[in-house]
Design brief:
Number of domains: 1
Number of helices: 8
Radius of gyration: 17 Å
Strand order of the largest sheet: 3-2-1-4-5-6-7
Keywords: Oxidoreductase
Shape: globular
Number of strands: 7
Helix content: 40-55%
InterPro entries: NAD(P)-bd_dom_sf (IPR036291), Sc_DH/Rdtase_CS (IPR020904), SDR_fam (IPR002347)
CATH superfamily: NAD(P)-binding Rossmann-like Domain
Family: Belongs to the short-chain dehydrogenases/reductases (SDR) family.
Largest sheet: 7 strands, parallel
Protein name: NADP-dependent 3-hydroxy acid dehydrogenase YdfG
CATH architecture: 3-Layer(aba) Sandwich
GO biological process, one term: fatty acid biosynthetic process
Length: 256
């Protein structure tokens, strides 16, 4: 199947690449021609993905990456540059979920959500931008940072307050980063996916509550993971040179 945008000549770093959307994006970007750096704490999983990408003719590298540790982030970018080149397509995807009503959710869970979903995005994007600017992105206009948000940032629901707030936070963060770097050749955009079956939800969608949630969507279905492909490739490619500070909902109409 032909892909709508090429990433040939680009080096991409995917944070949170060991499973779910991150693993999918890593394989997608490799198919589009990018040299792909898979960053995650679970390096056994990313090593398997690298083998699969290499077997398919792509170029990939697995690096340890804990987005809550600035030293780990710096080391991941160093390894990417040693193996390939300056990372010019960055996907800030690492995230976790913890559900519960505001009065019930333990503060330890709230702090973990903020550290990973907000501060981790901030740190991954910042380190990437610093290196792009140092490498001449102002002249090249080649910087592409894509933040993975969530439609929960635009919805009101019981049990999602902390998670949704982190996603709303990175949406505003992305626009502010785009403004800061608008003259530095670094574009920052956010994609808000809908509900997709990934490892992070466990077996929720097999439960009565999960089935009821799906029945409440306008199209009575979960969103397919590959429905994000075209927009992800667009934001990571040369084609999106004039697009920065955008946040786009791609959710199969779930939030309508």
């Amino acid at each position: 199947m032909d892909l709508p945008f090429s990433l040939s000549g680009r080096t991409a770093l995917i944070a949170g690449a060991s499973s779910g959307l991150g693993a999918h994006f890593a394989q997608l970007f490799a198919r589009a021609g990018a040299q792909v750096v898979l960053g995650a704490r679970r390096t056994d999983r990313t090593a398997e993905l690298v083998s699969a990408i290499s077997d398919a003719g792509g170029q990939a590298l697995a690096v340890p990456l804990d987005v809550t540790d600035e030293g780990s982030i710096i080391a991941a970018y160093d390894a990417a540059e040693d193996a390939f080149d300056t990372v010019d397509s960055i996907v800030a995807n690492a995230g976790l979920s913890a559900s519960g009503r505001t009065t019930d959710l333990p503060m330890d869970d709230v702090e973990r959500l903020v550290a990973t979903n907000f501060t981790g995005v901030y740190a991954v994007a910042r380190e990437g931008a610093k290196r792009l600017i140092a490498s001449g992105s102002r002249q090249k206009e080649n910087g592409r940072i894509t933040i993975i948000g969530s439609i929960t940032s635009r919805l009101n629901a019981n049990g999602d307050s902390a998670y949704a707030a982190t996603k709303a936070g990175v949406t505003h963060l992305g626009r502010n980063m785009a403004r800061e770097w608008v003259r530095q050749g670094v574009n920052v955009n956010t994609i808000h996916p809908g509900y997709i079956a990934t490892e992070i939800q466990g077996d929720w969608y097999q439960t009565d509550g999960g089935k009821a949630q799906i029945a409440g969507f306008h199209r009575r279905r979960l969103q397919e993971m590959d429905s994000l492909d075209a927009m992800m490739l667009y934001f990571a490619s040369d084609a999106s040179r004039s697009v920065t500070g955008s946040d786009i909902v791609v959710d199969d109409g779930q939030s309508l």
